[in-house]
Specification:
- The complex is a heterodimer of chains A (326) and B (264).
- Chain A has 326 residues and is α/β, with parallel strands linked by helices.
- Chain A folds into 2 domains: 16-66, no CATH class; 77-314, Rossmann fold (3-Layer(aba) Sandwich).
- Chain A is 44% helix and 20% strand.
- Chain A has helices at 2-11, 13-28, 33-50, 55-70, 123-130, 153-159, 174-179, 191-200, 217-229, 247-263, 275-281, 308-314, 319-325; strands at 77-88, 97-108, 112-116, 138-143, 146-147, 160-163, 235-239, 267-271, 284-289, 292-298.
- In chain A, strands 6-7-8-3-9-10 form a 6-stranded mixed beta sheet, sandwiched between helices. In chain A, strands 2-1-4-5 form a 4-stranded antiparallel beta sheet, sandwiched between helices.
- In chain B, 77% of the residues lie in helices and 0% in strands.
- Chain B has 9 helices and no strands.
- The longest helix of chain B has 34 residues, at 219-252.
- Chain B starts with 11 loop residues before the first helix and ends in a 12-residue tail after the last helix.
- The chains are: A alpha/beta (326), B mainly alpha (264).
- At the A-B interface, helix 6 and helix 9 of A face helix 6 of B.
């Protein structure tokens, strides 16, 4: 609960007041308005260049100067990505690699977006830019209307939770795996709460004392989803959550995910190769090739015009094959 | 210490006689067609040249006994050790040379100051006969363990990067997320030193002790020195590898708690 109210406070009161005070102070000096504005601009320029090395300070500063006054509080998009590009710097013996190129999209509150595309098209990198496990070379990601660089990354990652392709189980029981968290991290990690969360993903609470290493693939993956849910995320990022699983387990994990869509009103961004999961999630489809957006499609809207490649994908053909046909 | 009581000074001729022993390797190499003759020849020549060069320099420094010469020698030793430690890593570490130099300098200087100033109480502190061999032993251990720890850290970060990202995604700081790998590499670096303490003297006598006994010291004097050496090597190993691993791990983690996978 406390984490939700934190955003609201931070968004509205203190920063706006400091911004609105500034012009009044300048106006109080009857002459030399131009000089004052010039000086203010100069100070801003110096501050910006001083903080250039520190991405965090710069983001804060930019946020207070540009973003805040423009914000309209009931923000509709939970995640908004603008002109995202990612490039790995050149190292010894290899040239810079372009991973993402001018990717833009948004996910509305409680909405879903599925990223599809051949392997190596940058789908996982997009996900990792959303919870800032990766730092984009340029472009802005906004969560809940705020530049994600203005959050503490650790807090951001609890609110935008990531479930990876291979479920990472730490040593110990299922309980240990659910409880794992930094020292004095807030949240309710009681047995009762854990049982509730396990139930949400379709697991029995008597699993708590099982050694996590003995779980099946599908159970492990659902434990990692439960682990993310315990942190009360607003958005869930799924990186091929079912691709390492056999069909029965795939079905169980898909069940769990689509149930969450309705019970929790979670916003979901998923990378998947499975048309079944796309169909269950609904929402929008984003087709990436070599780090570029090739097609964007609303799956819900029944306007009939579906991109041929996406249509082929949903009909169950692999994306690589359909790419060859077009 | 009583100076060189019953020492047999080797003549050049005697050393050349010892060269006959190299023949044994050559015979084995030729007989089993190992193809080592070339390397062996280079190795023999290098051993002679390197050791003579070091011997001549040390003789000059010992004769001069000036603190600045001693510091210069120590600086060169740290430089070479840094280079050796970094080159043993399987993948280049960004700013690796600076990290290794920092770790080795601090661990060596700290241990050396304690041993020279407080334990052995060498006066003046820069007496080359003491400070240079002791520094060499400390540095050698620091270097090996730092390289061992660094190599293990790199391979662990690579192979367990999913686990690191899982921790980061659960809200752990970068430092907390790599802590298990840091711990594993420190253990890997320190275990040889700890195991060495278990068997020391039983399998073979340590080189320094052997040398002291050959030079005429009583075995009991030699043992006292050897104990000091073992303890100081332990300290240098711990400090050197800890600093190296901590600084190196920091290179792979950004202030925004991200793992820089492309560096691995």
């Amino acid at each position: 609960m406390s984490s939700v109210s934190f955003v609201r406070r931070d968004l509205s009161s203190p920063p706006t007041s400091t911004i609105s005070k500034l012009p009044r102070q300048i106006r109080a000096k009857s002459r030399g308005d131009d000089w004052a504005i010039f000086a203010l601009g100069l100070i801003c320029a110096i501050l910006t260049s001083l903080t250039r090395s520190s991405g965090f300070l710069k983001a804060r500063l930019l946020y207070f100067m540009t973003e805040l006054p423009l914000q309209t509080p009931p923000y509709n998009a939970i995640l908004e990505v603008n002109h995202l590009s990612l490039q790995y710097p050149s190292g010894r013996g290899h040239s810079p690699t372009q991973i993402l190129n001018d990717v833009s999209f948004s996910v509305r509150r409680g909405g879903a977006l599925t990223l599809v595309g051949p392997s190596g098209s940058g789908k996982s990198s997009v996900l990792r830019c959303l919870n800032r496990l990766l730092e984009p070379t340029s472009g802005i990601v906004r969560f809940d209307g705020r530049d994600i660089r203005s959050f503490d990354p650790r807090e951001l990652r609890c609110r935008v939770a990531l479930v990876m392709q291979t479920s990472v189980m730490f040593e110990g029981t299922v309980r240990d795996n659910l409880c794992i968290r930094p020292a004095n991290a807030p949240g309710d990690f009681s047995d009762g709460r854990m049982a509730t969360v396990l139930d949400e993903v379709g697991l029995e609470s008597n699993l708590l004392d099982r050694d996590a290493a003995t779980l099946s693939g599908g159970e492990k993956q659902r434990v990692t989803i439960a682990r993310a849910l315990l942190r009360d995320p607003q958005a869930l990022l799924l990186d091929e959550p079912t691709s390492a699983l056999d069909p029965p387990n795939t079905f169980l994990v898909m069940e769990a995910i689509s149930r969450l869509r309705t019970t929790r009103a979670l916003s979901i961004v998923a990378v998947t190769h499975q048309p079944e999961l796309v169909r269950r999630l609904g929402g929008n489809l984003l087709y990436l090739i070599k780090g570029r957006v090739e097609a964007f499609q609303s799956f819900d809207a029944a306007d009939g015009v579906l991109d041929a490649r996406l249509e082929a994908f949903l009909a169950g053909e692999s994306l690589n094959a359909s790419k060859g046909q077009t | 210490m009583s100076p060189t009581a019953g020492i047999i000074d080797l003549s050049i001729f005697q050393v050349i006689l010892a060269l006959v022993l190299i023949l044994a390797i050559i015979v084995v190499s030729v007989h089993q067609s190992l193809g080592l003759e070339r390397d062996l020849a280079i190795g023999t020549i290098r051993a002679v040249v390197q050791l003579y060069a070091v011997g001549l320099i040390l003789a000059a420094v010992f004769a001069a006994a000036r603190w600045y010469w001693v510091l210069l020698i120590l600086g060169v030793m740290i430089g070479v050790a840094t280079q050796a430690a970094v080159s043993r890593l399987s993948k280049p570490l960004p700013n690796g040379a600076w990290i290794a130099a920092t770790a080795l300098t601090i661990s060596t200087a700290g241990t050396l100051a304690y041993v020279i100033g407080i334990v052995v109480q060498v006066r003046p502190w820069y007496e080359p006969q003491y400070i240079i061999p002791i520094a060499g032993m400390i540095l050698g251990n620091s270097m090996t363990s730092a390289a061992l720890a660094g190599d293990r850290l790199q391979s662990d970060l690579r192979s367990r990067s999913d686990e690191i990202e899982a921790r980061l995604a659960l809200g752990f700081s970068g430092r907390e997320a790599v802590q298990p790998m840091v711990r594993a590499s420190l253990r890997a670096a320190m275990i040889p030193t700890v195991n060495g303490m278990m068997t020391v003297g039983l399998v073979q006598l340590p080189g320094m002790m052997t040398g002291q006994i050959l030079a005429g010291s009583s075995p009991l004097t030699a043992i006292r020195y050897q104990l000091v050496v073992i303890f100081m090597q332990g300290a240098a190993t711990a400090v050197g590898s800890l600093l190296f691993v901590r600084l190196a791990a920091g290179r792979y983690i950004t202030p925004a708690h991200q793992l820089q996978r492309y560096l691995l």
